[in-house]
Structure formats: structure tokens, C-alpha cells
Amino acid sequence: MATEDQAEALFKRGIQLINGDDMRQNFAEAAKCFRLAADHGSAEAQGCLGMLYMNGTGVKQDYTNALKWLRLAVEGGNHAAYHGLGNLYLEGHGVRKDETEAARCYRIAADCGFDESQLYLGILCAEGKGVPKDPVQAFMWFS
After folding, report:
1. CA 12 – CA 87 distance, rounded (Å)
2. Cα-based angle 96, 44, 106 (whole degrees, multiple of 5)
3. What is the pLDDT of residues 38-72, one digit of tens each?
4. Does the predicted TM-score (pTM) go above 0.90?
5. Cα separation of 56 and 113, whole Å?
6. Mapped to the 3 state alphabet, what secondary structure does the chain carry?
7. 67-114 pLDDT tens trace
């Protein structure tokens, strides 16, 4: 069983493989590193693995696995993973489409400073999807 330090090292290796830091980008190998780290409780790796499954990057696209890993990530305290959950709920991938739940997920990630969630939440506020239409709130999230 990997220790917490080993899981962290595997997560960091996965990030290096995604970014191509001093090596060629290799999403499939990154997914393997994330999987090993995720299996040993790394919430960051669980979130990354969930996003890879959601997008079909380095692994076969699989919304069921995306949902599984993103939920584990948020349970482990990875609030950025709420953005991925928001995407799944907004599009109805692997779950029943639910704009209200998407907005809730984006709000949690946005409140933690996740820029992309702030943008998506602003769009939902502007369009009145999942939340009351509110151009002032939309502007706030866009700013």
C-alpha cells in the first residue's frame, strides 16, 4: 500500500506528465499515476482522474467513472472537483441533467476561487438557468 508521501509523489508525477515538464506530455501515463494516487486517498488525484474520464483524455471517456472519482475528490476536500461535477450535471452526463445542482456545484468551486466556475456561474445567473436570472450577480461573477 502506498504511503501518503508516495501518493503525493505519484500525483505530482501525473501533473508533470500532463504539463510535459521536462518530458513529453503523456496523458495515459498521467492517468495511471493519478489512479494509483487516487486509490490511496489523494483527493487531488481523484479530481484529476475524474476530469480525465469526463473529457476522455488519456483514458476512454466514461461519465460513470468521472462521477465516481469527482465525488470522492469532493468528499476528500478537493473543492475544485465541484467544477467537474457541475459540468456533469449541466450537461446530464452520467447523471440526470440538473441545472440547479450544476449551479450549486459551480458556486462551491467559485467561492473557493476557481475562475472557470466563476465564469460558468456568471453565465447561469445571466441566463437564469438553475438560479434566478440576475444580471447583477452575473456581473459580479464575471468581474
Report:
1. 25
2. 40
3. 999 999 999 999 999 999 999 999 999 999 999 99
4. yes
5. 26
6. CCCHHHHHHHHHHHHHHHHCCCCCCCHHHHHHHHHHHHHCCCHHHHHHHHHHHHHCCCCCCCHHHHHHHHHHHHHCCCCCHHHHHHHHHHHCCCCCCCHHHHHHHHHHHHHCCCHHHHHHHHHHHHHCCCCCCCHHHHHHHHC
7. 999 999 999 999 999 999 999 999 999 999 999 999 999 999 999 999
